[in-house]
Amino acid sequence: MIDGRDQVEEKGWWDQDVGMIGRPGPGMLPPMMESKLHNPEHTLFTVSVTPPDIKPPVPTNAPETSSSPPPPSSPSQSSTSSSPPATAPSFTPPTPDEVRQAVPHPNAYYCRKHNGWVLLVCKSSNLLPPFVPSFRKSSPHQQLPDSSRRTRTKNCISDQPYGQTNKTHHFHEYPCSIDATSLVPPYRSRSWEREENAKHARRKIEVGAAYFDNDMVQHAVEGDRKSQEETSIVIDAKEAEESTLLLDLYVCCQCSLYVAVSGVIPGVIPARYIEYLTMDKYQKPHPGGNGATSVMAAWETIITVVENLLWKGNTKPLRIGGKAFVRKLGWHSGIKMIFESLGFSYKEAQGDEPIGTLVPPSIDKTTSSGSFNRERLLRAWVEMSSYTEEFRRRYADELKDYQPHTLWVKTDSARETYQRELGAHIDQIPRSGLPDFFERAPVKVKEMWEKLGLSSTAYNTDLFHFAYFAQCRCDPRNTKDYFTAVVEVDYRHKLKAGEIDNETMIVEERSRGRFTDEDLQQAASLLGFGEANDLKLELDDSVEDNFVLQAWKDKIRRSWTALDGAMQRNQYVDALRIIAQSRGSRELIVALENEQRNGMTPEKAYSTLEVPVGVDEEMLITIFNMRIEEQPSQSDKMRDALRVIAEVTESDRLRKFLETGMDPGDIAARTKPDWPRGLNQLGNTCYLNSLLQYFYTIKDLRDAIAPLALSDDKLVFEERVDEDDLKKHRVGGRAITRSEVVRSRKFVSHLAELFRQLENSNSPAVTPSLDLAKLALVTSKDEEEDETDRGGTETSNSTDATLVDESAGGLRESPQPQRAKSESPPLSRSPSSVLGKRTRGVDKKGEGEDQATIDGASAEAPDIDMDGFVLVSKPPSPTSAGLENKPSGSDTPMTIDGDGSGDVEMQVEENVETPKAPPLPPRPKTQGSSEMMFGKQHDVAECMDNCMFQIETALLNLGAPLEVADSDKTSVVKRLFYGKMRQRLTLLEESKNHKASTHEREDHIAHLPVNVSDEQFDLYDGLSGYFDDVVDFNGAKARMEVSLIDLPPILQIQLQRVQFNRETMQAYKSHSYVKFGETIYMDRFMDDAPAEKRATAKVIQEELTQNRDRVRQLTQSKYETIDNTWTFLSKQTAMTFEEVDETFLDDLKGEKERVEQELETCRRRAGELKTQLEEVWQDQHRVEYELTAVFVHRGASPTFGHYFIYQRWLPNDPDSWFKYNDSDVSMVTKDEVLADTTGSTANPYLLVYARKDSQVIQTVQRVVPDPDIMQI
């Protein structure tokens, strides 16, 4: 609720041509104004004084006049002596008027902390007090609120004639603007105050005169401006001496209320002396008393001295050595300063006196000095009495047995009184308070809060909105600053508290063009400003508007060729508007409007030439020539339109036509020099192409391979390999052979040559060599088998591969387990396949057991030592009795056929055991057999294994000592791809076959598997199933727990999409979406993860798994047919079923509803548990990885499809992604890479993450030729 807003002013807040009449500038709400009036921690008191009932003594003998005063007596003696005290010759006690005037003003409030007074006047009036000339000079442009608006409403809180249009007051400050003498009644300082001010002024002049000679001072006083410093000193001193008290004025812009307030008017005794005496007496109480009674006795003694002087005329000097004086006050510099402030003078001891006396001042009102002292003592008496009264109230418990001195002053807190007048009372503005974090917030946040005119003592959403809109109404020029404050405060509040939501208001304001300081910085960065951006120039006032406009136009032109060009152009338009308004530049705004209205864009270009988007270039040129002939006056506009289309389509043909005027015909499409090159297929090798492109982006791998691209084949391939060296080295857990070393070096040499072409070729795509493809796709074991099939013999020494254990050492309770035998290359990867790897043989002792391949798990039952174990992938995959799901290999032919589109079809033949059947004769080799053009081929995972094996083998330093050559640090493959994990197997039930219940070991790991679920798990869900699972261990259930000891720079995560249907006994590909993001934090899976968090997460994960398993059971079992069955039976009329009656249908419907309800409950609970689980790990961001590559398989079947890869442009442009689709390389958006693939057959199957800031990925490595050389 707010009135007085002007839409023209608010819309044109940035425009200097829009007048802001009657806009007084920034304001504040009552709670903040209250805190500015006086220190909110100090209480102000109203003071009411009653003339004391103290009778002056009647002297029995008139005192003789003497030049020396009589012997002094203590205050207690003077009040108890039988002889009357000495009185002044013309003693007159203060009158009631004098007592009442001791309070400075009817609107003066006493502050105990300052021992001073504050004038505070609240008044409703259309007429404001006159401003002093000095304020008009210092603030000539500060406007007063619109008087007509103020006149309409008397008070925003109690009297709004047109309804509650304003939430509360909105005050504007005018500091030191009015003279206290203009108040009604006027405030005038007393003579003693004026004298004190004069002393201070003279002291200031003397300080200034000490630096300047008389002539300089005289010139400054006369107005000579040669030296501003001299002028300031002298004029300030003169004004301080001559002027009276200046007050701050606060005016509500919405009603007639105004508030005048002074600073602290000092009391007679400086506050530091009062505080010193109080602390001294409280900390050092006199014997028989406590701190509070000692303080009371001291102040009551001083008050008694003053009362005896004023009302009894006791002018006898005070003996500071008297017992009562010493016991109640003592004597030190602090006491001396207090009495001197009261006008007493210290007289040194004379004669036999051991100590001096304090001589009272004259209070004879017939003299100027006496009147001066009389007024000062009365003010001091009121102040000391007020202080003592308040002390007595605060320490009432400690003073309950104390007999106090009679005080004639009463004090009451004035806080509620003036709060109500200001509109800041709790009944008027409820105190909901701010969260504690605001009190501890950075200075910037507090400044933003105060910028809105708000106080931390009162807060609610309505008040927040009112404060913002009131500031924009009264100070439109600074709208940006106020909106920045709103957004900053709202963000901090939601971040810490969460219960206040200003999002709707912020969205509405942004729709009106509001922006923040951060938006301005982003806008400048978007147009290329900043040291780290294209222009290498900071945007400041020295940058001309025309330069900004040209930078914007350049960005617009670049956006024409971007995939998300339309979105970019909208961003650039908004960026220029923000910069223009922040600079108050009408020139930029007009240019922006003209460009939007008349500037050529791709849409306008097609419209201008009247052609559809995507028109053929030859047709476009023809139509362009026709338009020029028809409208020659529009030739420039037509050429501009064609130029834009040429840039948008990157058409060299159109560019050449515009340059020469001649149609050059078809021109081969250019590939951007700094873009990656594609790879041509050699026959259904799309998955190999994806893998080779991936390897090329890994900088260290590329650099390690590059030197091996040698022209001397003998040096590379026929280098003598010592048998002893071979025995010392192993790769992937087994020894290697000479033939494998030679073979691997050939592969790496061809790979290095391909990398050289990818770096230097100007063609859009390069073609891998046939030898490279064969070496990558066919393993050494396959070659040996092919030789055997052709009648060759095996070479026992050169081809045999001996398995050895290469697991990292670790604490175990059982001997090292027996590993399953493998061929070359070793299956060192934890899961065995991306889309389902097939092992070469079947373990005979596993016949009749569950051996089908699911999620990449081997169909072969692993050999397990009685006390050992191997990692079993989840879930197990049964086969029917007598059915053996044979994998590919020497016993299982695999056919790979290609279609015209480059898709790959992989067919696995399954053989049913027939004990009496004779062996099959060898098959004749034909085109399209399993060997195809390269012999046997394998899936992507096996291809990756083979390539990694050969790279590591080729890079072995065979001549180096074993401890050096075999170090993980010297192997670029191990260093980049291999981490270390700890496996812990715990039996869940007793087993007589096992001596120990827990087994533990450490091992290397190259990538992590993630099972794909229909319930749309995210990446963390899938990984959690791998790191904590229940497996079968030699016939017993065991919990397999895995933790990561060390992670490599490159983290490969495979999504195991091959699932097994137990009913059809067939493998199928799951197309379920697995949510993943640009960043993953692996802290929760590390071995050193906080134990408490790990335990909490484990409990939550177990319940989450139970709910998800139940959902899977309900959706993938016979329950899923209930709905269809009920629908069919309840609606069909063609057939009659005797057993189907109303009762049956009701029961079926009830079962359907029960299942649906249980599904809803389980899914809701699973969502809650997932949220709880993420909250456990939300502060664990130490092990951070960023997404770098996504391998995609497109196809409905796991045995058929097409492969391509997305790769992030690192480190140059992390927000851009390349799509490598064989020979075609294109730029795509991040949204496409991270898109929800539900319902699509193109699904990610391998995700690659790189450790944050590891700099291991360099996506584009190109040698861009010089354009001049290219032309030659």
Q: How does this structure look, described?
A:
With 1272 residues, the protein is α+β, with helices and mostly antiparallel strands. Helix 11 (291-311) runs antiparallel to helix 14, helix 27 (635-649) runs antiparallel to helix 28 (652-660) and helix 41 (1091-1116) runs antiparallel to helix 43 (1142-1176). A hairpin with a 4-residue loop joins strand 2 (108-111) and strand 3 (116-124). The protein is built from 45 helices and 33 strands. Among the domains are: 190-213 and 229-243, no CATH class; 271-312 and 325-350 and 357-407, no CATH class; 534-599, no CATH class; 600-667, no CATH class; 682-782 and 934-958, no CATH class; 979-1075 and 1182-1271, Cysteine proteinases (Cathepsin B, Chain A); 1090-1179. The longest helix is centred in the last third of the chain and has 35 residues, at 1142-1176. Strands 17, 18, 22, 25, 28, 29, 30, 31, 32 and 33 form a ten-stranded mixed sheet that branches. Strands 1, 2, 3, 4, 5, 6, 7 and 11 form an eight-stranded antiparallel sheet that branches. 36% of the residues are buried.
The total of helices stands at 45
Do you know the CATH topology of the domain at 979-1075 and 1182-1271?
Cathepsin B, Chain A
Oligomer: single chain
The helicity comes to: 25-40%
CATH superfamily of the domain at 979-1075 and 1182-1271: Cysteine proteinases
User: What is the overall pLDDT average?
Assistant: 78
The profile of the biggest β sheet is: 10 strands, mixed
What CATH first level of the domain at 979-1075 and 1182-1271 would be assigned?
Alpha Beta
Radius of gyration: 47 Å
N-to-C terminal Cα separation, in Å?
74 Å
The CATH architecture assignment of the domain at 979-1075 and 1182-1271 turns out to be Alpha-Beta Complex
Estimated structural class? alpha+beta
**Uncertain stretches:** 62-83, 793-937, 1268-1272
The portion of residues forming beta strands comes to 5-15%
Counting DSSP E segments of at least 2 residues, the number of strands comes to: 33
Shape: elongated
GO biological process, one term: regulation of proteasomal protein catabolic process
Domain USP: 677-1252
Biased composition (Acidic residues): 900-912
Coiled coil: 1145-1172
